[in-house]
Predict the 3D structure of the following.
Amino acid sequence: MSQVLEPDSVRREMYRNQVVEHGESFLSDIDTRKAYVLTPDKGAKIREFPLSDSGIGMSKALEIVAEAVDLPGLNPASGGHLGYIPGGGIYLSALGDYLADITNRYAGMFFPNPGAVRMENMLVRWMADLVGYPETASGTLLSGGSLANLTCIVTARDAMGVKSAVVPHAVIYLTNQVHHCVTKALRIAGLTESHVRYVPTDSNYRLDVSALRTLVAEDKAKGLKPFMVVCSTGTTDTGAVDPVDQVADLAEEEGLWLHVDAAYGGFFLLCEEGRAAIKGLERSDSIVMDPHKGLFLPYGTGVAIVKRGDKLAESHHYTAAYLQDTLLQQDEISPADVSPELTRHFRGMRMWLPLQVHGLAPFKAALAEKLWLARYFHEQIIAIPGMERGPFPDLSVVLFRYVPQTGDSNAFMHKLLAAIHHDGRVFLSSTQIDGKMFLRFACLSFRTHLHTVDLCLKMLKECVEKVKTQQWA
Ligand SMILES: *Cc1c(COP(=O)(O)O)cnc(C)c1O
């Protein structure tokens, strides 16, 4: 019976063809498929098929996937996904995962699978070079920005000597625009009892350095121990890029660990326009980037890099008796020594394969295009009467809101958002800033092009009209 788990080449071909066909049918109309689909049952069909001793077969399985998984809700693979921070799903990453899974290389330790580990380390080094970190830097591929932020924050805590007795006196500085996974990480890292100071932001939602300076001075005067400041380049909500360079001046003077959350914006460093917007990253102590955002990989890859790699290792290395052989032969650092994980998905392959096969140029071009599209949207959105827009985008997020001639803007905006979701041709998300509801245009999918943005503008115009004329209650 267990032989079923090892299909012969004929069966492998059959399964493979079925899966590839499914993928092809998904991609064949990706340009016209809705970005958001409301279905009454929201994928509940999954539950109609409990696991059993006899399998349901591939055809049935794929049928369930098409109906219950591929259809309902947001389609993150769509270029019309302009909400949250879009990802992507480049095809060669899927093939990279296929290879990684077939060979099942063990990317946790150098000794068993040195090539896989060298591949990951090479990718980390490439990103460290992009940031401008020295040779001492070390990092690790994780599942995403949340775990990467946690990994850096734990490292900062330990490197700065914030042991339990210090925790109640320790101070962390961030803005209210920081990603919530950072505050979540502070909790997981045992820093709940530390002081968290929300540094005011300027009119572009960027960290106000002089306010930070005052706060740090006040805290030091109180005898507290300021130890870390978190910058974002850019923020998820508004795409704002904090002035890392100036914060670094202060961090150096005051002896603070400077952590940069570049999960969203980090890879804009690959294009000239992006580099102009993000300055001073090389002066930070640790950084997070999300290849599953800015490199358009499918979900599941973030990176944490720490300038002083020994600090990352001090917080994360471990040895166990049954792993003693692994120490015999170590030309390069093992991911397990710089990560909370041991056995892990061989993440390098899904990133290395597309970057090597396509080269960097198309990635750079796609990123420059996203910046351009955001500026275009910022320019065009006010052509719809009643629309107000947020600041000129630092990167590729644009805030906007509709202000009706009479009545409450927020109430209108709630209806407008519902109308947009019901339409579904493109997907937008909303946020709340100082009590005002804004819609966000967040452009980062490699599938988003000028025609997508024009469709978005057209749809917005139509949805405003629908809400205005009470066709949408
Ligand atoms: C997306 C994002 C995160 C969280 O990363 P995940 O990959 O979703 O875990 C953190 N910070 C910023 C700025 C982000 O945009």
Summary: The first helix runs from residue 9 to 28. The longest strand covers residues 225-232. The pocket of pyridoxal-5'-phosphate is lined by residues 85, 144-146, 179, 181, 232, 236, 261, 263-264, 290, 302 (CB under 6 Å).
